[in-house]
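Prompt: For my understanding, could you write out one protein's sequence and backbone structure tokens?
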Amino acid sequence: MRLPASAVLLALLAACATADGDPRDPFEGFNRGVYKFNETVDAAIARPVATAYRDLLHEEIRSRVRNFFSNIADLFIGVNNLLQGKIQDGVEDWARFAFNSSFGLLGIHDVASDMGIEKHNEDFGQTLGRWGVGDGPYLVLPILGSSTLRDSVGTAADIYTDPVGDFRPIRLRNSAVALRLVGVRADLLDASRILEEAALDKYVFQRDAYLQRRRSLIYDGQPPREERIREERSFKTPVNVEPAAGVNDLRVVQHAHDR
């Protein structure tokens, strides 16, 4: 009998579960293995390609590429804001998409920001969190990096609804996905030095930073009092120094780098 991939993954996670350690991270042994894999891939492939991309293309060109994909993302950022009951933010997201797609030439120029329309950061994982779905166990996903059980479900929804996935022909879609990933990694080359300079357990450092950052995003920086108390008891990593090994972790680093 053949088991579905999800059942195999759950069995592996159960085998790696430990009674000791952080209760938020019952699969730490499994997660550390994936974390090491992500570091290896980043050092061997992602970082060199991203470095070449940054060195060969002028910042003006990279900025236009960044704006193009950011504009596409505004569509479902708006959907998530509406699902969370933030109607004004959702309308602003769609207004951004409309203005940037037309006057901004398919989004390569961010005219909406020049008009004072704020850029938001939402995803389906945050929406589930606002609906009351708990984090679940901490997970490290291949390539993507830090996540939780809830955020993994959200990531699957994000990928399924990603407009870039509908690009045709297939070669164009694959090229667009690769270009976006390389661009994200290139933007974070400077910030990733934080990881290399960290003297602590990088895995624990990154895990705590990710969980704290996600909680801040879910509650737009203003978690309920009981959440703040639980956060103070749980997190030992300073939020302004956040390392990374995967794509999600690199976004956490970018937050620290921009502050």
Summary: Residues 1-11, 237-244 have pLDDT under 50 and may be disordered. Residues 24-189 form one domain. The radius of gyration is 19 Å.
